[in-house]
Amino acid sequence: MKKIRLIEVKSELGAGKRGASLGVDALKIACLNKGSDYFKRFTSVEVPNFNDVMFEKNLFPHAKYIDSILQTYKRISNTVEQTFDLGMFPLVLAGDHSNAGGTIAGIKATYPDKTLGVIWVDAHADIHSPYTTPSGNMHGMPLAASLGEDNLDCKVNDPAPETIFFWEALKRVGTEEPKIRHEHIVYIVTRSYEKPEVYLFDKHNIKNFTYPEVIAKGVEQVAQEALNRLKDCDMIYVSFDVDSLDSKFSKGTGTPVEVGLNVEQAKELCHHLVSDPRVVCFEMVEINPTLDAENIMAQNAFEILEHTTQAIEDRLNQSSSTATA
């Protein structure tokens, strides 16, 4: 039976607000409070982080801490690759969303000849580059790094040569080539983005299932359509940012946005997505308990995590019993 391996990534270098490094521990507290044995059931590995560099001056205004984020990418990529080599399913619990670039790199390093699709459940598009970023926060750039996308048509910044050097290196973690193609990204409930990102949506016909569309079609149909849009992909990575939830439910995250999923919708959505046999990795990010005295965000996120993990386990058990039958 293929087992799930938890990969804990406490790096928060890419976020605009501090505190996402505590997200994994907040999930563990939610787990204890619920009386669940979740974190005892699975083997886990923690990827060492470089969060201490935040006590030093940031030298890269258009890609903050990119030198340390490059090292973080490499460590995440290696850990994901090692997890696949062990025959296990990587379930990543990460701080800020910049870490997803390392996860994608690890998937492609393991399967360089397979086509990877990405389902990005997030309030934000995260497809900026150092040339277009309004903030310099690298949790807005993981998809652009994975695509090898500079988006120079929408250039507003002139990054320093050192920044460009590290950005080019970031694009090459895991594989020299771009890891994904624009047409193999599907967004769900993304509702906060800037003009350079909209330009890429339009140019490459990238699909975003808006919240009104989720309401009109129902969660199951949206999940099915998202998976169908990736019919040419051999494998799929699902990335779940907790700010995909409506801000009523997601106070404990760095950038909450109104008009998003409720907890039940998120559980149903993730369940349907990870039940697809092509899904090889699931990631949950951006829980920040310092913004949430009651730890409600982590409790909601843990409920989604437990439900999603059960769906992954059911699928893995089913495929292993079919294989031995």
Automatic annotation (TrEMBL):
The metabolic or biological pathway listed in the UniProt record of this protein is:
Nitrogen metabolism; urea cycle; L-ornithine and urea from L-arginine: step 1/1
Give the CC-aspect GO terms: cytosol
InterPro entries registered for this protein in UniProt? Arginase, Ureohydrolase, Ureohydrolase_dom_sf
Q: Which UniProt keywords apply?
A: Arginine metabolism, Hydrolase, Manganese, Metal-binding
| Known cofactor(s) | Mn(2+)
EC class name: hydrolase
- Superkingdom: Bacteria
Provide a GO biological process annotation: arginine metabolic process
EC numbers, comma separated: 3.5.3.1
Q: Which GO terms describe its molecular function?
A: arginase activity; manganese ion binding
Q: Which family does it belong to?
A: Belongs to the arginase family.
Its recorded name reads Arginase
The scientific name of the source species is: Rufibacter quisquiliarum
